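=== RUN LOG ===
request id: a7f3
mode: sequence -> structure
chains: 1
length: 130
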Amino acid sequence: MFQFTALATCLAVMIYFLTIIQVGKARATYGIKAPAVSGNPDFERIYRVQMNTLEWMPVFLPALWLFAIYISDTLAAALGVVWIAGRIVYMIAYQKAANKRGPGFAIQAGAAGILWLGATVSILWRLIHP
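=== RESULT ===
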């Protein structure tokens, strides 16, 4: 069973839901009516946090699960929590100023990269050494 990875997945989805709620609130605060996504820089940064999180989910989630299956549930979940922490750092920093988003982005990209690389190497290893 992969209960730790499943919990990390639920937490990642919760963070994404949080970004959705923030965009909804920001639309009301800044008077940005759907489908518009521009017009106020403060709104645009909040919107970009949501969209960037969405853009990373198809990279992060398969890598997380493949890493859990081929390497370790516990280690995958730990790296998943690092990814989530990176997304939170990114969200808080980017909402303040676009030029502050780098550290959070680097944390989550590093965690996703380790998950992807670890899964890929493990899969290839098993193909070569059945």
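=== NOTES ===
The mean pLDDT is 98.
Residues 41-70 form the longest helix (30 residues).
=== END ===
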